[in-house]
Structures are given as C-alpha cells and as structure tokens.
Q: What sequence folds into this?
C-alpha cells in the first residue's frame, strides 16, 4: 500500500502513546479559597483519573527539593514561604498525555495572561505580591513528573 510518509509517522507516534502520571498541587491560595472541589472537578471532567490524593502541610525540605530549579531566582523565597502558608492538596493525576493536558487546563503561569477557561485564567489574578499565586502546580515534563511524584508520593508504584 502506498501511504504518504506523514500518515505512517503519525500512526507510529499514536501507537507509542503511553499512559502518564503528573503531579498536581492545589496551592495554599486554592485551599484557602475553597477551590479544591472546583479544581478536582475540572480534572475529572476532562477525563483524567486521580490516582493519589492527600491534604498536607509540606515541610521546608520537601519544598526545597520540589522547587530546586528555581533556587536563586528573585521569587524563590517568597514562593517557598507562600507554599508553607497553609495546607495544600497533592495529587497524582493519570491519563494519556496528562502532563501536557493538565498544563493546558491550568493555563500559563501568569494568571493575568492565562486564557479564560483555564484554572488560572478563571480563578486567579495577579495581586501584586512578590510571588505569583496561581492556584495550581503541574509537572512540566515526564522527567519532572517522575521526580516530583517521588518527592510527594514516595510509595507511588511504577514510575
Ligand atoms: P509554573 O508553575 O507555571 O510551572 P514556574 O515553574 O516557572 O511556573 O514557577 C513556579 C511558580 O513560581 C509559579 O507557579 C509562580 C511563581 N513564579 C514564577 N515566575 C514568577 C515571577 N517572575 N514572579 C513571581 N512569581 C513567579
Ligand atoms: Mg514549573
């Protein structure tokens, strides 16, 4: 059969798709504002599965590990302080292409620029603080997801 090369390439990519896990955090602003149900509802309505979930107050050690890529940046200390300002909800969310998919549900980092329809675009605004408070965290790559899940859910299987 004489199929165009692009069709064959697409078919190969699709057949190689694997299920992914991502780390989602509902940050202290989301918990304080009672948006836990709203965020989980958006994740579930999209079709993703909650595979792990806990309400917790993360230690400094956990947050230093989680945010190590931002160490030295001007917002690092305000970010760590903010994340210790109240309970958070940590989740493992599972689905095909969920890492990219959840980042799209969340919207871009700056809530002023996050598109309406996204979690950050609908529910957060820049309030002029040293750290942007934007309701949720989502892992940005499969490497980050594996690393971050092992920090928050050390017993999570099969990573
Ligand atoms: P994201 O959470 O979209 O992956 P990030 O990893 O670059 O964004 O930054 C982590 C968090 O730090 C982000 O959710 C909000 C805060 N932040 C990022 N850039 C900032 C900035 N320029 N000023 C203030 N806070 C910032
Ligand atoms: Mg990030």
A:
């Amino acid at each position: 059969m004489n199929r165009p090369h692009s069709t064959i390439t697409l078919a190969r990519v699709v057949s190689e798709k694997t299920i992914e896990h991502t780390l989602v955090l509902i940050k202290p602003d989301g918990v304080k504002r009672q948006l836990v149900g709203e965020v989980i509802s958006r994740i579930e309505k999209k079709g993703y599965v909650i595979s792990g979930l806990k309400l917790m107050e993360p230690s400094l050690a956990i947050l230093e590990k989680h945010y190590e890529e931002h160490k030295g940046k001007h917002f690092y200390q305000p970010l760590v302080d903010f994340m210790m300002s109240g309970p958070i909800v940590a989740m493992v969310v599972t689905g095909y292409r969920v890492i990219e998919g959840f980042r799209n549900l969340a919207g871009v980092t700056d809530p002023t620029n996050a598109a309406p329809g996204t979690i950050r675009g609908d529910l957060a605004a820049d309030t002029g603080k040293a750290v942007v408070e934007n309701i949720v965290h989502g892992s940005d790559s499969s490497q980050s997801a594996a690393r971050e899940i092992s920090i928050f859910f050390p017993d999570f299987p099969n990573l």
